[in-house]
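debug: dumping io for the single-chain case to check the tokenizer round-trip. Nothing else runs in this session.
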Amino acid sequence: ELTVADCCYKAALEFQKLGGSKMVKNAKTCFELAGTAYLSSLRSDALGDQRILKRAVACLTKRAEKFDKCVNLLVSRGRTRHALKLLHEQKKYDAALDLVQ
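debug: decoded output
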């Protein structure tokens, strides 16, 4: 999974370099795939690799602009604390309350 994530990440960086509206869309799709693969590679029962977690969150939130998907994936992988932190940073307090209830 990490190899797939790294390949998607590298492809996204290349698409970004090429520019153009279609390439930007392709880059966002690749970043979304990379972020999803990075999160999927993390074990839900342990802290896991913080570097991988940070890259996954950055790919999904900053690069692919898939904030809600990132939060849902974090929760599904047992990373509720990280999801709450993201919601707090984005001032999405109602969503954070929904998550803890």
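debug: round-trip ok. The helical segments are 2-18, 21-41, 50-63, 67-76, 80-89, 93-100.
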